[in-house]
Design goal:
The protein is of the alpha+beta class and 128 residues long. Helices cover 26% and strands 24% of the residues. It contains three helices and four strands. The protein is elongated and about 60 Å long. The protein starts with 32 loop residues before the first strand and ends with a helix.
């Protein structure tokens, strides 16, 4: 293999102007959470992952393959962003489909201003 045969994965990424970050491509969403999932290459299917997420009444917002290497026993690692504030239901559904959930990330509800505003609105309607 010569250097001409090697294709850098960065060749296909859009060039960002100076001062911009990748966050513009995948902006933060208050109503979402992230999961890191792995599987063997033969079991990888984007449509199957989407179906597993939709089984828990969520939408798949992003799906990015992040790693596929020998250091991970040749497993495919996929980063998902789903439209639920809590990733626990999506994680359980993905595990039922045979995927291994490595990590989850979400905004905590305890200090969340949006959740507090919604609770105040609900209490207002209950008091009526």
């Amino acid at each position: 293999m010569t250097s001409k045969d090697y294709i850098s994965p960065n060749e296909f990424l859009p060039a960002l102007p100076p001062g911009h970050s990748i966050d513009r491509l995948f902006p933060h969403n208050e109503e979402s959470s992230r999961l890191l999932v792995s599987c063997i290459p033969a079991d990888y299917s984007a449509s199957r992952i989407a179906r597993a997420v939709e089984d828990c009444d969520a939408h798949l917002l992003n799906l990015n393959i992040t790693a596929d290497g020998e250091q991970l026993d040749n497993r495919v690692v996929v980063e998902l962003r789903v439209s639920h504030r809590s990733p626990l239901a999506a994680a359980r559904s993905l595990e039922r489909y045979g995927y291994e959930v490595l990590d989850v990330e979400h905004d905590a509800l305890a200090g969340d201003d949006i959740a507090a505003d919604r609770i105040k609105e609900l209490m207002h309607y209950i008091d009526l």
